[in-house]
Hints:
Keywords: Oxidoreductase. By secondary structure, the protein is of the alpha/beta class.
Amino acid sequence: MKHNSNTLLFQTSAYIDGAWVRDANNKTFDVINPMDDSVIASVADLGKEETKKAIEAANIAFHDWKMKTATERSKCLRKWFELQIEHVKELAEILTLEQGKPLAEAEGEIRYGASFVEWFAEEAKRTYGDVIPAHARDKRIITLKQPIGVVAAITPWNFPNAMITRKVAPALAAGCTVVVKPAKNTPLSALALAYLAEKAGIPKGVFNVVTSSDSRAVGEELTRNPIIRKLSFTGSTEIGKILIKQCADTVKKVSMELGGNAPFIVFEDADIDKAVEGVIVSKYRNAGQTCVCTNRIFVHEHIQEEFTVKLAKAIQKLKVGNGLEEGVTIGPMIDHQALEFVEELVEDAVAKGGKVVYGGTRSAIGNNFYTPTLLCNLDTSMKVYHEEIFGPIAAVFSFQTEKEVIQMANDTPFGLASYFYGKDYARIWRVAEALEYGMVGINTGLISTTLAPFGGIKESGFGREGSKYGMDDYLELKYLCIGGIE
Length: 486
């Protein structure tokens, strides 16, 4: 499919209570293609009142949706999954147009996102309770798991499809209803999912999408409205802290998947070629704009030179360009502000003695493109050590001992993803246990999968998405004590 605004998946109205809606004044905001800053679409720009209506619709729908059997909910989710797979290419092109990532990578995200819907279609049938040995002869103790209620999901622009399905699928499987606020940069993927949800037979009010350029107003309604019982957010730690505070007044359950500063450690006994491959897949996916991207690469001093030479050669093979063109592996930054941020990081490193091995400049392809970059001769005074880079910059630091590198890796308030390469069996256990991160990739740079619990510790948040644990944040545990049994 070439871009065609007439495709049914290409929706520009918000989706509330089973209807495609706009505000009374037909207010809209533009969705910009980061490839060339052209306007892709003008999307409904809703506010507080429309958000309140979406919440009320979700609340009404909740009372019927939660009463459906697990099998009934499972069938709806399964159909939604099948429709996503059927329309992979169309969904991927919409994603590439609004977000910029290469088309092959976008297709990978669609399949990854759909896998959560498939997984939780099955998990819907497995929300088991327990019978617990009682404390008295005439008592019986039972636990039940019940849906928490109406859920709010605020999702980011870097994975505009998968971050929605990763939240919505377990919520719906549990029996909850959802109001989604997608990022203003990338609302079209969310609306395409809503269209397919409608076609899958998911009842009105169960899945709602509120599009808006006023994130503050919509966010405040989602966090302060007492009908919302659970908030799931993926985004920056700074915004996450604000949302947590706003949820406190109504004591909502919250899940936070926040910022990261992932270390990537290469020990002296590592397979250097495999480690380089791991850096490429971890660092440069989505032009470095992922929360689990490698940030600080720590290489043992004995192999640093060899590793850096091989990494530079691998980076040179990356192709920067329009994500819709075949063979492109690096697309644009999401906007000019993001480009200026990574440019500032490189300038700071160079000013403090860092060396640009490769790249380090804007690309002539377009306003939002930055060349894949490799920096070395770095130290802890530089911003690339402390900041979440969120761009195509590989920053290589040197280390001497295991103890030293563990200290450096943990020297951050963040604790989302981490990676290391090495062969020593005992060291693998020591390092894996010592790293203060919710996820550890060992001899691999790609750790995201539906089957495993995704999430962080420290200021990277709390709660887990995916896997058998992914339903827990959308369920309440109820204890029943039955007496009088003689």
